Amino acid sequence: xxxxxxxxxxxxxxxxxxxxAEVREYGAEGVRKAQADAREAGxxxxxxxxxxxHWELPDGxxxxxxxxxxxxxxxxxxxxxxx
Length: 83
Description:
A three-stranded antiparallel β-sheet has the order 1-2-3. A hairpin with a 2-residue loop joins β1 (45-49) and β2. It folds into two domains: 10-42; 44-77, no CATH class. The chain is α+β, with helices and mostly antiparallel strands. It has two helices and three strands. Helix content is 43%, strand content 14%. The termini are far apart. The chain has helices at 11-41, 67-71; strands at 45-49, 52-56, 62-63. Residues 63-83 are annotated as: Disordered.
């Protein structure tokens, strides 16, 4: 077992664990907000599940087909205002 996976029960260890939990929660909160914003804007969310990309479409369904493929003219890159 590595020295990093063992704790000696000190106050410093407890404070570090509390800090790590707080940072993790801030990150999770940010992800939830970004997901909500994307859903509100009608933008598909993308997840990697066992190394396979899945898109959550605005209607809530999941697909492994890239929804941007058709929107981009077949190359998977989103079109810009100039294109």
